[in-house]
Amino acid sequence: MTTPFAHPIEYDAPSLERGRLLFAGRCDFLLGVARLDQLPAADRVEVAFAGRSNVGKSSLVNALTGRRTLAKTSNTPGRTQQLNFFALGERGYLVDMPGYGYAEAPKEHVAAWNRLVEDYLKGRSTLARVLVLIDSRHGLKAADTTVLDLLDKAAVGYQIVLTKLDKLKPSQIAPCLKATRLAVARRPAAHPVVMPTSAEKGWGIPELRAEVASLPGMG
Ligand code: GDP
Prior knowledge:
Strand order of the largest sheet: 1-3-4-2-5-6-7
Distance between the termini: 23 Å
Bound molecules: guanosine-5'-diphosphate
Shape: globular
């Protein structure tokens, strides 16, 4: 696929194929977790997706998995405040975390989100990486910074994924990638490579699949 940017990583064909196969396999909704005692046994590698409401998380998860059912499940009323677990391939979990930073969210929701997410992030030994989605038009906002601080404190490795890159002018893409990379450069738990994507155009999707499949124990 031609993209209006050079991807920061050149994945070889076998890595891209591993990524394709991982997401072509089963990806079934397993359960929603509202309290930590409901977490499934920590017997598989997991990758979690986090981001502000409306960042394009459902669209990205749909683009990765090539199905619509996943994110629909997560957006079902009652499930939006949960950690939604999906079986990813035979050996992994994909965890859709509740969106944060919604301006009108009641205070008690925010507090509940923080508690659940904080406890989950701190205590989950099998959590290999959190993908933190950032809308490329907006960059890092205060709510994102709060989450990155939390991840740094909990020493949970995370990687920034830029979404909706098709909304930028082609000339804005490289500067946006660079600015985001610099913004997280000194953060201790941040992966140095920022992943560029557009769910709408399919940009960066094979590469993100390959990146997830490269996590030890996953692919
Ligand atoms: P969520 O709240 O983070 O799950 O966000 P959604 O996936 O529901 O997306 C929020 C809005 O952004 C929707 O109107 C999507 O159509 C739009 N959107 C999501 N991804 C993209 C993208 O890659 N490009 C464009 N142009 N719009 C997108």
